Amino acid sequence: MKQEMTLPGVKSNDIVNTLPEDKLLDIVRKVFTDQISDEEIAKQSGMSKPTLYKLKKTERFQSAIKDYGEVAVREADTKIQANVDKAVIRLISLLDSDIPSVSLKASTEIIRLAGLGQSLPTFTSTQPQHPDQATVLQYLQVIALGQGKQNEPVSG
Question: Using CA atoms, how far apart are residues 45 and 28, in angstroms rounded to an integer?
Fold first, then answer.
């Protein structure tokens, strides 16, 4: 029979209420990250699976997992923000690319991210004044509409 963890002077069925804070936080972290099974969490914590389930239903556990989740989200947001800054700097550097298509794609992506990427109007062959302008407008349409969802090709 499986031996449950017991603290001196505490009945085994009261472990849920008397679990030390550090043990509770260890269990919360393992449950939150969801990388190992409840059975393994219970085993590593020295309790039975039913005791773990009982613990997970307590207000103390629910509060601890909510707090842990809020901290985890804030930390993840900080990491994301740090990488977003790097990505934006990289995107801006691509504006000066010697390859016109890279520079154009960077420009349109910056416009899209800035919220200015409203749908492009349908262009007709009479609108462009120059063949290169027609190519650029067609390229912008492809980007705006998504790959494989082109309107009629623009001719020059």
Answer: 11
pTM above 0.70, yes or no: no
How far apart CA 136 and CA 113 sit, in angstroms, is 19
Q: Is the pLDDT of residue 106 over 70?
A: yes
Cα–Cα distance, 153 to 69 (Å, whole number): 50
Q: Residue 143 corresponds to which amino acid? A: I
- Report which residue type is found at 6: T
Tokens 């309107």 belong to which residue?
151
Burial level of 121, CB count in 10 A (0-12/13-18/19+)? exposed
Residue 124 has phi, psi (to 5 degrees) of -110, 170
Closest to 47 in 3D by CA, of 56, 60, 127: 56
Query: CB-based burial of residue 137 (10 Å sphere; 0-12 exposed, 13-18 middle, 19+ buried)?
Result: middle
Question: How far, rounded to the nearest angstrom, does the alpha carbon of residue 155 sit from its chain's CA centroid?
Answer: 41
Distance, CA of 60 to CA of 18 (rounded, Å): 11
Model confidence over 36-50: pLDDT tens digits? 999 999 999 999 999
